[in-house]
Specification:
- With 224 residues, the protein is an alpha/beta fold.
- It has a single domain, classed as NAD(P)-binding Rossmann-like Domain (Rossmann fold, 3-Layer(aba) Sandwich), CATH 3.40.50.720.
- Helices cover 37% and strands 20% of the residues.
- The chain is built from six helices and seven strands; from the N terminus they run E-H-E-H-E-E-H-E-H-E-H-H-E.
- Helix 3 packs parallel to helix 4.
- The longest helix has 22 residues.
- 43% of the residues are buried.
Length: 224
């Protein structure tokens, strides 16, 4: 029986590359995303091994989820508003935090009954959210939300440390060449492409839960 990976935001960038990595390693993949179009070719290629679910992290209760078990859950979907702190609106903050923090919290909570015995929940975070790392103006809402998701994984681990073999970890990524990076740092060329990072994410998500729990792992070649 195939293992099952659930991945949010799998229609572009790091998420899409990670979806491909799991499929190539013979996993069944459930992708939760607002945009199915970029995944149509993969669906044709992998058929029933790839299930696509229209899912909006800002309205997480509006979607019925499949009943498959969860061996790996990757919180990859993310949002960014590049704006000075003094100009940030409540709507900007709500948008960023609903996708980067509240959405992963509520999705994990909702999937608890489906987590397999040794399930691994991984948040794709940012090195900017690590205490003491370099911070950048205009990214206060994004960076602080990544700090929140890092701590959330630590808290989830504490919640279930005595009652399960589940693992909760965060990968705090540095610069990867994605649309979101271009929005945050226009003109900057990152040292890594999504397809260069996705094998690491696959290996970490599929096996590292056996040896580490409640950890925040910086994964970066540069600053940012």
């Amino acid at each position: 029986m195939k293992q099952v990976a659930w991945i949010t935001g799998g229609s572009r960038g790091i998420g899409l590359a990670t979806v491909k990595e799991f499929l190539q390693n013979d996993w069944k993949v459930i992708v939760l995303t607002r945009n199915l179009d970029p995944l149509s070719g993969l669906k044709e290629e992998y058929g029933s091994n790839l299930e696509l679910v229209v899912y909006d992290l800002q309205n997480p209760t509006q979607t019925n989820l499949p009943s498959y078990s969860v061996d790996v859950l990757i919180h990859n979907a993310g949002a960014l508003v590049n704006k000075p702190m003094a100009e940030m609106t409540a709507q900007d903050l709500q948008f960023c935090y609903s996708i980067n923090v509240f959405g992963p919290y509520l999705l994990t909570q909702r999937l608890l009954p489906q987590l397999s015995d040794n399930a691994h929940v991984v948040a794709i975070s940012s090195v900017g959210g690590v205490q003491g790392s370099v911070k950048f103006p205009g990214l206060t809402n994004y960076t602080s939300s990544k700090g929140a998701i890092n701590v959330l994984m630590e808290c989830f681990q504490a919640e279930f440390a005595d009652s399960s073999q589940w693992s909760f970890n965060a990968l705090a990524l540095g610069a990867v060449q994605t649309e979101m990076l271009s929005e945050a740092f226009p003109g900057y060329v990152a040292p890594l492409k999504p397809e260069e990072l996705s094998p690491f994410i696959y290996n970490f998500a599929s096996s590292a839960g056996q040896v580490m729990r409640g950890k925040i792992i910086p994964v970066s070649l540069s600053t940012p």
